[in-house]
Each structure stands twice: as C-alpha cells, then as structure tokens.
Amino acid sequence: MRLVLVGPPGAGKGTQAERMAERLGVPHISTGDLFRANLRDETELGRAAKRYMDAGDLVPDEVTVGMVRDRLDDEDTAKGFILDGFPRNAAQAGSLGGILADKGLQLDAVVQFEVDDEVVVQRLLGRGRSDDNEDTIRNRQRVYRDETAPLLRYYSDQLVTVDAVGEVGEITDRVFSALHARSA
Ligand code: ADP
C-alpha cells in the first residue's frame, strides 16, 4: 500500500501514520521527522533546513525532494510506504509522480485529515515542540492553505477524506473503513 497523508499542521497525521504503518507493515516516512533527525545530528541537510523550519516555512524543494527520493530508494519501501508531510506543494507532487513513475509505481490513495484551524492551534500549543509557538503555527497553517490544500484537487481521483476530530483509535478505524470502501 502506497499512501500519502495530507492535512493541516496538528491534524494528527503523525500519530495516525504510525498506527497505519504498523497495521500495514510498511514504513512511515515523515519529512518533518527526517528534518528533525538531521537537525539533531547537525548534518548539512539539517543546517540547510533549520531557518525555514524555525519560521514555519517550507524547506526549499530541491532539499526536500532529494531527501525523499533517497528515502524511497531504501529497500523497506518495497512493500509500500506512508508519506506524511510530503508532498506539500505542486512542485513536490510533480516530483513524487516522477520518482514513482521511474519505479513503475503509483499511489494507492491520498488520505485527507480534516480538522478545524482553532482546534489544532490548541493541540499544537499543548505539544510544545520548538516550532510550536503561535506565530509559527499560524504561518504553517497559512502555508498549508496556500500551497498544500490545492493538492487536494490535484489528487481528487485518489482522495479519501477522514474526519480527524475524535479519539485516536476511532480515527484510525475511520481511515481503514474509508480505504476499504474505496477499494471495494
Ligand atoms: P507540521 O505538519 O506540524 O507543521 P511537520 O513535522 O510535518 O509539522 O513539519 C515541520 C517543518 O518541517 C515544516 O514547517 C517545514 O519547515 C518542514 N517540512 C516538513 N515537510 C516538508 C516538505 N514536504 N517541504 C518543505 N518543508 C517541509
């Protein structure tokens, strides 16, 4: 199963991606986590990404796409993958299409997590990650609205929409029901 998860910051994609990855036996690939690991390890990629992440802006596409391309070359993606936080704009979506086409692969579905902006600001402020201050959060929401949300139309044929407000387990069940309903 090859899936992309789309939703605003704080929609709970990461939590759901973990649970879905475990159930499906495929890796969870989070670009945010990959960037944070690079920051922690003080790699060149981490240094290139830092100021964008601190501001809540997108890291430049060439950095991000290269990182994802490398990750999708790893053998553990043979059975599929869950992409969380990528693609986040039209150029990245085009690049992903190219990366997959080169491998003769296609996405099975794009899962959209729907949640209200105000609900997520409260969630994120409670989480306390270093880029989780109100200004950065608002900027990430704006970036989502302007750059990422338009992808939903681009992916309309593969789109599965899930209400992301509720209990964690309940939302996971909704995701799988929606995916089953789609493939049935
Ligand atoms: P959130 O979805 O809560 O904003 P993420 O962990 O997905 O958090 O991303 C954190 C930051 O990492 C983003 O604000 C951005 O700077 C960077 N980032 C993550 N994914 C991408 C991407 N696909 N393209 C560019 N930058 C990204």
Short description:
With 184 residues, the chain is α/β, with parallel strands linked by helices. The protein has nine helices and five strands, in the order βαβαααβαβαααβα.
**Could you say which structural class the secondary elements and strand pairing correspond to?**
alpha/beta
The tally of helices reads: 9
Residue share in helices? Answer: 55-70%
Q: What gap, in angstroms, lies between the N and C termini?
A: 15 Å
CATH superfamily: P-loop containing nucleotide triphosphate hydrolases
Strand fraction equals 5-15%
Shape: globular
* Strand neighbour order, sheet with most strands: 2-3-1-4-5
What's the total count of β strands?
A: 5
SSE run:
EHEHHHEHEHHHEH
Q: Can you list the ligands bound to this structure?
A: adenosine-5'-diphosphate
Describe this structure as you would to a colleague.
The chain has helices at 13-24, 31-40, 44-55, 61-72, 90-102, 117-127, 134-148, 151-154, 168-183, and strands spanning 2-6, 28-30, 81-84, 109-114, 159-163. It is built from nine helices and five strands; from the N terminus they run E-H-E-H-H-H-E-H-E-H-H-H-E-H. It starts with a strand and ends with a helix. The protein has a five-stranded parallel β-sheet with strand order 2-3-1-4-5, sandwiched between helices. The chain is of the alpha/beta class. The structure holds adenosine-5'-diphosphate. Residues 9-10, 31-32, 35, 52-53, 56-59, 64, 85-86, 88, 92, 140 line the site of adenosine-5'-diphosphate.
